[in-house]
Amino acid sequence: QKQKKAFSGMAAGIPSQQDVPIVIRDIVQAARRLNLAVGAVNSDIPSSGSEGMAQLTFTVPVTGLYPDLKRFIYSMETTDRLLGIQGLFLKADKGRVSMDVKLVTYIKGE
After folding, report:
1. Residue 54 carries which DSSP code?
2. Which of 20, 30, 92, 106 has the fewest Cβ atoms nearer than 10 Å?
3. pTM for the full model?
């Protein structure tokens, strides 16, 4: 019974396809609050899953100081959203660090 209740609460927090722009906006705002420059966010076509869910991955390019990038990673790991980090790609140039963060989430199928 407890597991059913926990799962139904988690399922209620899963965004729909229409909510994806809001999710991306929230991620971009989180990065900007940490003084990071944000490039164009690229998302993949959602891949169908079971139970009416689809997996969505997207890449968020950010640039800034290394401590700010670490704080951004932490904020993505601890967000209330069902969001995971699938990959990090870093490169440094003259004291600034660029990072592509590949994030994954699930959305409700339409």
Report:
1. E
2. 92
3. 0.80
